[in-house]
Every structure is written in structure tokens, then in C-alpha cells.
Amino acid sequence: MILNVDLGGTVPLYQQLRDQVVEAIASGVLTDGSPLPATRTLAADFGINFHTVNKAYDLLRQEGLIRLSRAGAVVTTATADHSFAPEWTARVRTVLAEAVARGLPPEEVLRTCRSVLEQFATPREDTP
Fold it and tell me: What is the model's pTM?
């Protein structure tokens, strides 16, 4: 897995790392049991503070997407958990509102959403 961060970007580094790990899980690049780089190693690779990587990993842990142990961070299989739906819906609403406010036609917004979703549509072992 290759991670990239924009050191001069407006999105906080920990959020960029967290988001890229989530995308890697959704696209099947990272699967159950996949190890993540050690926080100090990843921080050194990017020239950032290791607490930044810790914060990203802690968010992923709180969201149930990784588990942390002395051996390191490891991806865990996501189970169907709809408790995150209200927060997720609020975030999607804001992104969609931005697209509409910037003049994108609804058909184009839907086409883009479908295209992006298809990139992440990976078969799940627990799906019949």
C-alpha cells in the first residue's frame, strides 16, 4: 500500500492518513489481517511527528477498522454496523451540497457517485 500526504494541504495530515487507509480497505488493497506500517516508520518516511500517525491510527481503531497491539496495527474485518450512518449521512450531505452549490447538475453528481462507489465495491466474504 502506498500512502501519500500533502504536507501543504488544508486537510490535516492525520485525516489524510486515516482517509487513505479507509480507501485502501474499501478497495480491497488492505484486507483482514493486513499489517500497517509502524507509526515511527511511517512518520519518518513522511518527515512528520509520530503523534500524527498515532492520531490517525487511533481514529481507525475507534472506528473499528484496525486493532492495535504491541505487534503493531492490523486491519480488522468490518462488520455491518449502521450506527455510523447519521454521521456519514451528514458528511455526504455537505459534499453533495457543495457540488450543487458549485453548479454541477444532479445527473453528473449521481454519475460521479456511482463511479466512485464502483471503485470500492469489493465482494465481502460475509455477503451471500
Answer: 0.81
